[in-house]
Amino acid sequence: MTVAVKYDTNLAMGLGLIDETKVLLQAWEPPMSATELYEAILESGALSRISAYRLRNIVVRAFGNRYLTDHGKPAAFLKRLVNALPAAQLEQLFYIYTARANRIFADFVRQVYWPVYQSAAAFLTKQMAEEFIWRAIDDGKTPSRWADGQVMRMGRYLTGCCTDFGLLGSPSSSGRPLRSFSIEPNVVTYLAYDLHFQSIGDNALLAHEDWGLFGLERQDVLEALRRNSLKGHFIVQAAGDVVRIDWKHRGMEALCDVLAEG
Predict the structure, then answer these.
(1) What pTM was estimated for this model as a whole?
(2) Topology of the domain covering 185-261
(3) pLDDT of 243 strictly over 70
(4) Interstrand relation of 176-177 and 234-239 (parallel, antiparallel or unpaired)
(5) I need a surface site. Which of 4, 96, 162, 252 has the fewest CB within 10 A?
(6) Where are the domains of the chain?
């Protein structure tokens, strides 16, 4: 029986943390733990503008949860790309790992942001974010019943994280304006390979929930993969509901090196 993941408040430790993540990836060396990375950054002064207490939360509870899972594989892959990819592509990769580590953020994007975006609304309001959280509380998705103030803060964190990653604009009296947001081609390739090397079959891969972070459904993913196949990273064969992908690269490290070369 699958146990549902409970929502937590780790997003409070830092939202997108884009600039900080770049610094931390450059400083991290395998097999550093989050605590060892924190001590190294503290000693180097690379993020000296941040207090030691907040820095520890950023490194251990944010960066560690996002990029040091699975024996640090996400950090190892992204370290190969941090100085090579354009900012927009790198930020979308950070966005994927942030959503994976923060289920409340991932569900908010899929269940609230994209339906609002597709409705052609101009703004996403704080009320929408708070209503999402109250529904989650009523559905038992939080470890306890959050107080009103905590719901308000988490609503701000959710919309603020969307702003950091380019889904929303800055807040206004009407809410945060929705911005045009679409997946970068290299991110399509990276995500497809990442899922493939998690032993997800080709058909299941097209329907994986991570594509929903970009508002993509199965047919959208298939078309995106077909377009990207022209770059030679894979060959896509589709007949009806059956899809087969022939993968060119034998590991994520090899793929990252190719993407870094441009």
Answers:
(1) 0.96
(2) Arc Repressor Mutant, subunit A (1.10.10)
(3) yes
(4) unpaired
(5) 4
(6) 10-101, 103-177, 185-261
